[in-house]
Amino acid sequence: MPSMLAVYTTSTSIKLKFLDGFKPNSFNGGYDINRISLYSDNGLGGDFINIQSNNENITSTTFTVVDITEGLYYKFKVSATNILGEGPVSDVFVVYISDLPEVMAPVTTSVVGTMVLVEWE
Predict the structure, then answer these.
(1) What is the tens place of the pLDDT at every residue in 61-90?
(2) Which end of the chain is more exposed for a tag (fewer CB within 10 A), N or C?
């Protein structure tokens, strides 16, 4: 089964990359995948719905999801379909949507005995 990684987020979009699981193997009967489907909740814990399906470019391993709301936790799942039908969905992947943080104050470090002390304002 595929796993996911959030490779880029803004306050209104997220790019998800699927790390593995879309190759013909014994789990999917050895048949080529002909559709990848991405499911998401509404960021408020609602039901999962199919938000995107990739029918043309099956070799692509990324989806960009837009029109999302900053400050919410979105849950995603993905599945693959071949001539045998849709396979099981992946584990749930949770992403917190936020914009880039402000520039952080300079960090200072010092060694205190066997520990490293990291401080900032």
Answers:
(1) 778 888 888 888 999 988 888 888 888 888
(2) C
